[in-house]
Amino acid sequence: MANTPSSPVRVRFCPSPTGNPHVGLVRTALFNWAYARHTGGTMVFRIEDTDAARDSEESYQQLLDSMRWLGLDWDEGPEVGGPHAPYRQSERMDLYKDVAEKLLAAGHAYHCYCSTEELDARRDAARAAGKPSGYDGHCRDLTGEQKEAYEAEGRPAIVRFRMPDEAITFTDLVRGEITVQPENVPDYGIVRANGAPLYTLVNPVDDALMAITHVLRGEDLLSSTPRQIALYRALISLGIAKEIPAFGHLPYVMGEGNKKLSKRDPQASLNVYRERGFLPEGLLNYLSLLGWSFSADQDIFTVPELIEKFDVADVNANPARFDLKKAESINADHIRLLDPKAFADACEPWLTAPHANWAPEDFDRAAWEAIAPHAQTRVTVLSDITANVDFLFRAEPVEDEASWAKAMKGDPAALLTSARATLEAADWSDPESLKNAVLAAGEEHGLKLGKAQAPVRVAVTGRTVGLPLFESLEILGKDKTLTRIDAALAKLAG
Ligand code: GLU
Ligand code: ZN
């Protein structure tokens, strides 16, 4: 088969700019990119914007921005340029027109004058008779007179590609050998009646013109591959293409309830992960496991490790299940792997954002750096950070009635009064001394440390759970701690 390309690897990522990028799309981009980097090949980024009704500039910008955020760089494409520019299909219309004319002239394509109603009627009749229901070849071999008659009627004509009457076999890099019989692949439209070229034409034509060697894409496109291979053969005979690329169809990604993850699924939107504070490397690590595995006993790895190991030959054909919990846990592991300064920097946008629950100007970098190591071992996504450290930057702790009710049981005023006294006398340069102070206050009331520290924590941070308490108190400082205990006592006194 002509699908073991002999030249250096050239892969492409060619999304249509419609809507927000979703995780399935990112997985496709990632596998192409990892394969390009693994083989020292070329990553081509092409924008398939031939559907003016659905494409948007906003979505185009989001695609570029998402790729940059993820660190999936491209060697040829928008803003980078390259020998096959332009890389936006909307700017390549003359090329497609030219190819369509050549296909028509050589008889690889023909004008089809059938109206939608006629096509529908014949399809229904074929179905009823239990026959294949695709295009029936009605206009394949019209005579000159028949064509003239249709033209005289003013019938609009689409351009249809003439499929060869033979089976098409190819070896999918993921699924192995696939053979499709000709009755299952009818002649198909490549140019609309208004002259607009269709995906069926522009996608393989660009792959040919851009000398793509490996087409790695979602399984949903598997059914278009036999058509594209036939078109490729025609392009080769016309000297437009050199060789048929190898195809590898990546497994479906399943979401909740074992249904295909759909673009509209909120869990599918890349922006959701970005806004929650996934690290690009955490997300890429997780997405690479959708249909591939690093090794039997390791599922946390860096991007360079992924590049070293990734081979499309190891991609599994079975559907992959999107598991949010696993994605989060992998991201948490990548947060632990950051060096402390990188972690502090990565969180800063969340700590200074206007949506943090304190005034951005109250952010204090020194206090943040002091507490950051305690937070780094605890957050799953970067946005978790605000609730963990807001007590440092707010004038007063958050008011959380549930936490208050849970912690202020028994005689909290008596405990807090004792704790205020022991804390006031403690050594504030040593968290151990602060711990002993709360321990001693607890003992006065027959309370173990856990019970004694709960009212202190809620008085000072507003919450029942958080970072290690005594380090938190030390960083917040003596004055603020005592003031907050006083305020809690006042509240308890009603
Ligand atoms: N623009 C097509 C899509 O987004 C690309 C298909 C392909 O990779 O061949 O579905
Ligand atoms: Zn027709």
Describe the structure.
The chain has 20 helices and 11 strands. The chain is mainly alpha-helical. It has 4 domains: 92-250, Glutamyl-tRNA Synthetase, domain 3 (Alpha-Beta Complex), CATH 3.90.800; 258-336, Glutamyl-tRNA Synthetase, domain 2 (Orthogonal Bundle); 338-393; 401-493, Orthogonal Bundle (Arc Repressor Mutant, subunit A). Strands 3-4-7 form a 3-stranded antiparallel sheet. Helix 1 links the parallel strand 1 and strand 2 (42-45). The longest helix has 17 residues, at 23-39. It is elongated. It starts with 9 loop residues before the first strand and ends with a helix. Bound molecules: glutamic acid and zinc ion (ZN).
The gross shape turns out to be elongated
Number of beta-strand segments? 11
CATH class of the largest domain: Alpha Beta
Radius of gyration from the alpha-carbon trace, in angstroms = 32 Å
Mean pLDDT: 96
Largest sheet: 3 strands, antiparallel
Quick structural gist:
The chain is mainly alpha-helical and 494 residues long. The protein contains 20 helices and eleven strands. The structure holds glutamic acid (GLU) and zinc ion (ZN).
